[in-house]
Amino acid sequence: MTAEEIKQIIITQILEIAPEINEGDVDPDAHIQRSLEIDSFDFLRILTALSKEIGIAVPEADYGQVDTLNHMVDYFVKHS
Predict the structure, then answer these.
(1) Correct CATH for 3-78 of 3.40.50.720, 3.40.50.1260, 1.10.1200.10, 1.10.10.10
(2) Cα–Cα distance between 53 and 36 in angstroms, integer?
(3) d(Cα 38, Cα 78) in Å, to the nearest integer?
(4) What is the rounded CA–CA span in Å between residue 72 and residue 67?
(5) Among 34, 37, 42, 62, which residue carries the largest CB count within 10 Å?
(6) pLDDT, tens digit, for every residue of 2-47?
(7) Is the pTM of this model over 0.85?
């Protein structure tokens, strides 16, 4: 899976879990929870959906490594 494919999967999951967000609202370098104003429960739902979709679970100890869209992409590319 390419970085671009992973990025699109992440964006799709964000939009499914937080439908009030537009794709253009997702700044690739901004902290996801703060910039999109989603709570920790929705953030966990996103990570769970990504685990099912991509097949890579993010342990709680690594949450700081997936705080932005770009960091998420890098994390999943690195661990795939």
Answers:
(1) 1.10.1200.10
(2) 22
(3) 26
(4) 7
(5) 42
(6) 999 999 999 999 999 999 999 999 999 999 999 999 999 999 999 9
(7) yes
